[in-house]
Write a structure and sequence with these properties.
Layout lengths: L2 E3 L4 H11 L7 H11 L5 E4 L10 E8 L1 H4 L6 H15 L5 E4 L5 H13 L3 E5 L12 H4 L7 E4 L5 E4 L4 H14 L3 E9 L1 H7 L1 E2 L1 H17 L4 H9 L2 E16 L2 E9 L5 E7 L1 E7 L2 E5 L3 E6 L16 E7 L8 H7 L37
Parallel strand pairs: 2-5, 3-4, 4-5
Antiparallel strand pairs: 1-2, 3-8, 5-9, 6-7, 6-8, 10-11, 10-16, 11-12, 12-13, 13-14, 15-16
């Protein structure tokens, strides 16, 4: 069923997307500002996957780069829509629908801005059900959808269209361009039909973001526990309630990389490893949960999600874990987004601490071609 997204939905959507963004995806406040600007004079029609025609031309619209950079390098609406226009010209046919590559931070709201500015419907779905740091890390990759041709643009007016042999090469080449263009660019790609979209995307993602974001706000207003409200909706569990005592972070090769330590009651401590998004949570040397499942940091009192670039010494936070879309636990998916891909010598641990059994030896120590550890 189609529905209309308006400026009134943005706060809840941005908050929920920042929760699902697992620490990455950029500052949700920035994305919310951009979406509100685009929605000032128009609304956007949101359609379900079952409403997308078989012969549709669906494109992802997203920001590529380090979230830390977007705090100072704000995108404009022109920068957001230029890759879509360039790709439409390159493909030689009109774009019919816009979709989110990920429901994480700004990448849940940038497509709203694009849809509003271009007068196109937005699909209530995304390519991950969370956020991941690299371009090829979307479920459509597992279904044979190619990232290229991929269009990109920056705030200076530079625009390019990239054609590559596979999605890993799209990531590698586009990342170099992204770094040269200031470590953040707007992109559009993964052109797919309605049939491919229904097969590969995560349904009802935007609706879920709004539900999570509004649940946190309601709990806070009613003086109940907002973190518990979010964890319940996500069918997850809370890992620790404590204080950030150490953060090490640097922007390198177009990513925000680092680690953080949160100390809880007694001698309990959790260490988080991140590359834009949180990838590993360990407690006193024991692995609790890893990518692809969700690791989220929320403010201890308000329940507001805390991104990796916003982590600061002394913050009171609560860390939670939740299950990812089950497709991320296949062998092929774990080779692409499991801990081994990021260079961690460990098996994939689900949110409840159990070992993911969906993979083969390729998930642990042996990586598929093109998936070099970072």
């Amino acid at each position: 069923m189609s529905w209309t997204i308006t400026a009134e939905h943005i706060d809840g959507l941005a908050r929920g997307a920042a929760v699902l963004g697992t620490g990455g995806g950029g500052d949700p406040y920035i994305g919310a500002l951009l979406a509100r600007q685009a929605l000032a004079d128009t609304d956007v029609t949101v359609v379900g996957l079952d409403e997308v025609p078989d012969d549709a031309l669906v494109l992802f619209v997203a920001m590529m780069g380090a979230p830390t950079v977007m705090v100072e390098k704000l995108p404009s609406l022109d920068e957001v829509v230029e890759p879509v226009r360039a790709l439409g010209v390159h493909l030689g046919r009109p774009v019919t629908h816009i979709a989110c590559a990920e429901v994480g931070g700004v990448n849940s709201t940038i497509p709203i801005a694009a849809a509003a500015a271009l007068g196109l419907p937005l699909i209530d779905a995304d390519g991950m059900g969370r956020a991941f740091p690299e371009l090829q890390m979307v479920l459509p990759t597992l279904h044979g959808v190619t990232a290229s041709p991929l269009a990109f643009s920056d705030e200076k007016g530079n625009t390019g269209v990239l054609q590559t042999v596979d999605n890993s090469w799209t990531e590698r080449i586009a990342r170099v361009a992204c770094v040269e263009m200031g470590c953040s660019v707007m992109i559009s790609g993964f052109s797919m039909s309605g049939v491919q979209a229904r097969e590969s995307l995560v349904a009802d993602s935007l609706s879920r973001c709004i539900e999570i974001g509004e649940a946190i706000a309601r709990a806070r207003d009613s003086k109940t526990d907002p973190v518990a409200a979010a964890v319940a909706l996500l069918h997850g569990r809370e890992l620790i309630d404590g204080k950030v005592v150490d953060v090490q972070r640097a922007t390198t090769t177009g990513f925000a990389r680092g680690r953080a330590r949160i100390d809880g009651a007694g001698d309990t401590s959790i260490t988080l490893q991140f590359q834009n998004e949180h990838l590993v949570a360990e407690q006193d040397g024991q692995v609790l949960v890893t990518t692809p499942d969700l690791i989220m940091v929320l403010d201890g009192e308000s329940g507001e999600p805390v991104t990796t670039e916003a982590l600061r010494y002394g913050q009171r936070v609560r860390v939670a874990a939740a299950p990812a879309d089950e497709r991320w636990h296949s062998a092929a998916a774990l080779a692409m987004v499991g801990p081994g891909y990021f260079g961690y010598d460990m098996r994939a641990h689900r949110f409840d601490g159990t070992i993911s059994t969906g993979g083969t030896e390729t998930e642990f120590g042996v990586l598929s071609e093109g998936n070099e550890p970072r």
